[in-house]
Amino acid sequence: MRIAPAAPQDVAQLRQLYFDVYGHGYPVALGSDPAEMRRLIADPHTHWLTARHEDAGLLAGSVAVQTDPGSRIGKLVGLAVHPEQRGGGLAGRLTAAVCGDSFATGALDSIYATVRVVTPGPQQVFTRNGFQALGLMPNAVEVAGCESLALFARHADGVLARRESVGPVPAGLLPLLEAARQSTGLEYGGPRPPDGPVPPAGRAAPVTAPVTAPMELITAPGFVRRRFLELFPDPGERFFPLHVPNAVLTPPDGAFEAYADLDPVAASCSLVAVHPSPAAVTGALEPLMAAVTRAGADYVETLLPLADAAGLDAFLAAGFIPSAVYPAMRRIGDRFHDYVVLSRTGRQIDFRTTAVSGPLQPYLLAYLTAWTSTYLTLPEVAP
């Protein structure tokens, strides 16, 4: 096999490759939209590799790393190997090559990937290439039916040694953080004195009655992006790497504006930022979830600093489950800060078709523990 950068003339064969691997169910434009594929191949912030037979020139595999230069984070996407070429280690070679190239530039502190868990093979590929399992997001995407995803990440040398310490965290996070300790060996939430700058914690929202009025949803991508940049002119205030909002949700009185990356094709939604603060949605997440569900998303996630107790409390109180923890995700000065992924799904969760490898087992148990304590009251689970 010859591994080389993707070229515009590869687009037709790349589309065929993703069809052969996923059928019509691949929800990512990188493998289905020719115009977007050509744009990404030319994009200086995307490193796309292909694998071909040296003799026949047939396309056998593909992978890319998309970079968010402002955050020094990359996302590995589109790893695919033709069904006839599986079992020979090509997925591992592609992963090693694209990560090696990306880290060699010195522009990245970490690379993450969301990995399918319908089979253990993809999990093993990432583990063998230095990625650590960081969590499990049930019902996260619509591929060939509703599927769960696992979060994996790999860090550049020396990054994890410069993590900023965090004091006590909300009790609802403890099962997840214990799972992360078991899986990665990293400690979280230790009450140690800070050695550097601390990320701003969310401002506490005033105690108000729950919002019951329907949420207003505006899906005008150009307007949403302009408004988003007006409200969050500082890049540090809109930290959600590789996500650009295309929708905004707000109550009729305009008390807050929640910016979302809404993807009805994948049936998912990422809450990118809330103005004036994440805690401002306290009491309003139920109508917000209802609006997102009507728009076609059954899975909603958000990303918050581990140090933002007020924001974490707001989402935990609204039924969001701590799903993953990303150590040393954000660089501030010469220190790195941990973040938490919280998610909520409107569908019944079914783990019977999920193949969870050893590094992910603690996260599955932690999710089940958190979900049970959130949605099953004591009388329902008592013997």
Termini separation: 59 Å
Name the helicity range.
25-40%
Mean pLDDT: 89
Helix count, DSSP H or I runs of 4 or more residues: 10
Uncertain residue ranges: 190-209
**Total number of beta strands:** 14
What strand line-up does the widest sheet have? Answer: 1-2-3-4-5-7-6
Strand content: 25-35%
Basic shape: globular
Main structural class: alpha+beta
Radius of gyration over alpha carbons? 21 Å
Largest sheet: 7 strands, mixed
**Could you state the order of secondary-structure elements as H and E?**
EHHEEEHEHEEHEHEEEHEHEEHH
**Oligomeric state of this protein:** single chain
Written overview of the protein:
- The strands form two sheets. This protein has a seven-stranded mixed beta sheet with strand order 1-2-3-4-5-7-6, with helices on both faces. A seven-stranded mixed beta sheet has the order 8-9-10-11-12-14-13, with helices on both faces.
- The protein has helices at about 10-20, 35-40, 90-105, 120-130, 175-185, 220-230, 285-295, 310-315, 360-375, 380; strands spanning about 1-5, 45-50, 60-70, 75-80, 110-115, 130-145, 145-155, 215-220, 245-250, 255-265, 270-275, 300-305, 320-330, 335-345.
- With about 375 residues, it is of the alpha+beta class.
- Strand 13 and strand 14 form a beta hairpin.
- Helix 5 runs antiparallel to helix 9.
- It starts with a strand and ends with a helix.
Itemize the secondary structure elements and their pairings.
Blueprint: E1 2-5, H1 11-22, H2 34-42, E2 46-52, E3 59-68, E4 73-81, H3 90-104, E5 110-116, H4 121-128, E6 132-143, E7 145-155, H5 174-184, E8 216-218, H6 221-231, E9 247-250, E10 257-263, E11 268-275, H7 285-294, E12 299-305, H8 309-317, E13 321-332, E14 335-345, H9 361-375, H10 378-381
Parallel strand pairs: 4-5, 11-12
Antiparallel strand pairs: 1-2, 2-3, 3-4, 5-7, 6-7, 8-9, 9-10, 10-11, 12-14, 13-14
Helix pairs in contact: 5-9
